[in-house]
Amino acid sequence: MKLNTTEISGYYAYNLQLSDRANFQVGTQVSYIQKRGTLENLLFGDQIDVFNQTTLPSSADAVGGLEPFSYFSIGLGGVLSWDQLWVGVSGYHLNQPNLAFYVREGQTQHWPKYSVQAGYTIPLDEPEFWEEGSGKFVHFLANYKRQGPFQFVDAGVQVLLNQLVVGAGLRNLPIQSDLPKRESLIGLFGLNLSNGLSVGYSYDYPISDVGSLTLGSHELSLRYQFFYGTPKSRGQRSRVLPCFSYLR
Predict the structure, then answer these.
(1) Among 48, 67, 85, which residue terminates a domain?
(2) Are 134 and 202 in a shared domain?
(3) Residue 25: which of 38, 39, 14 has the closest Cα?
(4) Together in a domain, 243 and 187
(5) pLDDT tens-place string over residues 153-164
(6) Whose CA is closest to 218, among 245, 198, 196, 189?
(7) Using CA atoms, how far apart are residues 155 and 244, in angstroms rounded to an integer?
(8) What does the pLDDT read at residue 58?
């Protein structure tokens, strides 16, 4: 069985300067997703010959094809920052698209995903009045997310030392006691270059009963921010949100 997913997304964000110390940013995401699938190399029970210890080439079970389908997904979010504190809300799949190849009559569509984030930044050094900041900070984050009946919490900390970012976090900590354990530990580091290019690496180690039997997952990220400031204001603290540099 093969599954292919193609996604094209567009983003728009607007920054509203509320005061010298406060900013409010709102953004939206519109995605077009197309999914294709083929049923190949499937083995059914009537193909297994137990006595001869062989498999038959075909099955009597009728297997329908997977018709390709596409859908739009809409997301919306906002972040309010005040000095070292920031609070954000976001929602994904707000239009509740259908994400399945087969939809039964009366079946509910995809649950929207809602999340609330909050963070606090502590500068590691205080520059003099006539000096610019050195770019050394500690960021703390808490993230609550809910999708349908499922509720989880993420927490993490990151240290920004000029262009170097290192951090650790705990992901998918369930709020309900009856949910299966899915939490994992995350370690990461990255480099933020002055030309708008960022390179990052993260390692996700599951600590649940099932996930602990695996070796975890590795992730490499490469991000480029177009129109990264201006030659006069690039990298100044007034243009940088006090949020995490990398989020998984």
Answers:
(1) 85
(2) yes
(3) 14
(4) yes
(5) 999 999 988 888
(6) 189
(7) 11
(8) 66
Q: What is the average pLDDT score of the chain?
A: 79
Q: What is the dihedral of CA 109, 171, 156, 198, to 10 degrees?
A: -70
Q: Whose CA is closest to 169, among 135, 137, 139?
A: 139
State which of 85, 119, 151 marks the end of a domain. Answer: 85
Q: Which of residues 190 and 54 earns the better pLDDT score? A: 190
pLDDT of amino acid 115: 95
Are residues 154 and 194 both part of a single domain?
A: yes
pLDDT digits (tens, 9 = 90+) for 100-126: 766 665 555 678 999 999 999 888 876
Residue 199 lies in a domain: yes
Residue 92 covered by a domain: no
The phi, psi pair for 215, rounded to 5°, reads -100, 10
Measured CA distances, 39 to 34, 66, 102, 240 (Å) = 17, 7, 14, 48
81 & 116 share domain: no
Q: Which two tokens stand for residue 169?
A: 């976090």
